[in-house]
Design a protein that fits this description.
The chain is mostly beta strands. It has strands spanning 10-11, 20-27, 37-43. It is elongated, with a radius of gyration of 13 Å. The chain starts with 9 loop residues before the first strand and ends with a strand.
């Protein structure tokens, strides 16, 4: 198991989502057969 430093929360571009979206990486892939795990926070437009 590799313990890695936490990656910063990033705000995604408005052109890709309807509202404000932030992504927190939890687990990043190191091999081609691995996937990324993220926490996704969404604030819809009003």
């Amino acid at each position: 198991m590799n313990i890695e430093p936490t990656a910063p929360t990033t705000k995604k571009p408005a052109a890709q989502f309807a509202g404000d979206v932030w992504v927190d990486p939890i687990a990043l892939p190191h091999e081609s057969d691995q996937t990324m795990v993220v926490a996704f926070t969404h604030r819809p437009w009003r």
